[in-house]
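It is worth pausing here to work through a concrete case rather than discussing structure prediction in the abstract. The textbook approach is simple: state the sequence, then state the predicted structure, then interpret. We follow exactly that order.
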Amino acid sequence: MPDADKLLQFLAKCKALKFGSFVTKSGRVSPYFVNMGEVCNGEGISILASCYAQIFKECFAGKADNLFGPAYKGIPLCSATAAALHKEHGINASFTYNRKEAKDHGEGGVLVGDTYKEKRRVVIIEDVITAGTSIEETMRIMSAIPNAEIAGLIVAIDRREKLGDGKSALQQVKEKYGIETHSIASIEDILKFAPAEHRESIEKYRLEWGV
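Step two, the predicted structure:
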């Protein structure tokens, strides 16, 4: 599996991973925050793509042949991962991403890249999963495409927070859709990586909200 510490080290360096006090969409006060939008240079996207590609090789080689990146953050992630797969592992997977609004001229439609004219086995590439809202939206999009068979999901960071049924979003996705789900790093990795002065608050948060 990929080196979670290497990824977290870079995310902290570029301030995509921050420690302190942050209010999440759920209203919880989190001692850490991850914003993949801060990964905006060649080094960062290369590290991320290499991690995604490693998981794809280990878990989906021979079982999937397409990467889907939900707009907007998933767009560079899926394309960079496709490049890393080919360069590092000799796997030539196609990639697809969506527009937020359908294009009514030119090629039209909401999909860009491989538009699934032929059957594809798809791995969704996401950045951070907390409540799984964006995944549900992606699954609705993909369910309307006859030639897109979802094989799995890879996320960079799994916060592993329990939802209403006591399960995490990644667990819910796995059970609801019957697909493989994997993450590069989780709150447990962040806890080990975090500066000493923040570990107690992260551990307390994990004990309260973690699965």
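Step three, interpretation. The first helix runs from residue 4 to 13. Strands lie at 17-23, 29-34, 66-69, 94-103, 109-113, 120-129, 148-158, 180-186.
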